[in-house]
Amino acid sequence: MRMHFLLNMRLERIVMIGLSLLLAVIFAVPAFAIRIKDIAEIKGVRQNQLVGYGLVVGLDGTGDGKNARFTFESMASMLEKMGVTVTAKNIEKVENVAAVMVTADLPPFAKLGSRIDVVVSSIGDAKSLYGGNLLLTPLMASDGNVYSVAQGAVIIGGFSAGGAQAQVQKNFPTVGRVIDGALIEKEIPSDFGKDGLLSLSLRNPDFTTASRVADAINGALSDSLAKAPDAGSIEVRVPERYSENIVGLVTFIEGLHVATDSTSKVVINERTGTVVMGNNVRISTVAIAHGNLSIEIKESADISQPLPFSEGETVVVPETEISVKEGRNKLLLLESGASIGDVVRGLNSLGVSPRDLITIFQAIKASGALQAKLEVI
After folding, report:
1. What's the pLDDT tens digit per position in 5-41?
2. Which of 217, 257, 341, 358 is most exposed, with minimal Cβ within 10 Å?
3. Is 254 exposed, middle or buried (0-12, 13-18, 19+ CB in 10 A)?
4. CA angle 225, 45, 142 (to 5 degrees)
5. Which residue range is the domain that position 81 belongs to?
6. What is the pLDDT of residues 269-302, one digit of tens each?
7. What CA–CA distance (Å, rounded) separates 143 from 355?
8. Do 197 and 99 lie in a common domain?
9. Where is 371: in which H helix or E strand?
10. Whether residue 203 is found in the same domain as residue 105
11. Has residue 236 got a pLDDT over 70?
12. For residues 287 and 331, is the Cβ–Cβ distance under 8 A?
């Protein structure tokens, strides 16, 4: 009886372990799958750029000089609004004021009274904004409306000091930031989830990825609610159960995982010698030989000194030494369909440098053997 009980216990344990493994296989997320949240954005949910013109005061002699006449005009206009009658001609020299441009990014769903950071940049000939204070500055969007006002102490995160013969500088003292310096005065209307339709935009448009995103959403919602009208967007009809909870629907969709796809591409930057190759890059059968030619020229000066009392002159005799070295690399054969790993191992065997690699890839592309897009940045 006891033996039968132990066998049943072992059998149940084996069954439970088997079910756990089966569920893990069924619901496991592939290693290459990425959340929809990381590859797509909700249309209508984006930042808006703001810009304004203002004055920074309180500088220790590092403000705009006489050449920045617009600073004097701005000061005169500001003082006149405060009841002080003064003209720009009466202002001869002001070294503790600097004219600046103020920029900020208004986040989506920003509410009245919330605060954001602003960046302050000098547009005159000020030497530093260290210790300055930004005066009340309206910030406008591209539609000309004021959505925020900025004011506060400027933090530059650096310094600049020097004298007549030397100068020391860290970072850029003419650009600073005002932390929480802008106050939101107007909200931007949003059509988020309007008319029962939710639209997603892929950050990297691709037909295959768009189709997979739509299939993943339809599978998760058990209904044909999502479609991909083009390579960069996915439209989702809001189901009835989410009609009053659009945020919950977005949260659910963003958590889904999708295996992304992309075009095979080789990106090269000749200025920095950078080469980046995608995993799907393939090369047809091709033979590669790359030999480096190195020419080294050294010049030195030898002094020819005449003998005493010989009435000769001391002359400088240049000596030139030239050496030429040519690499003797073997011919490398890459079979058709070679992967990125095969390419890297093969080219490393030739001992090529990144800059040589750029030339080789350009030659492979010209021969028609590179089955990928070659992009030069």
Report:
1. 444 555 555 545 554 544 444 444 444 688 998 999 8
2. 341
3. middle
4. 135
5. 48-160+167-184
6. 877 777 777 777 777 776 766 665 444 545 566 6
7. 47
8. no
9. strand 370-371
10. no
11. yes
12. yes
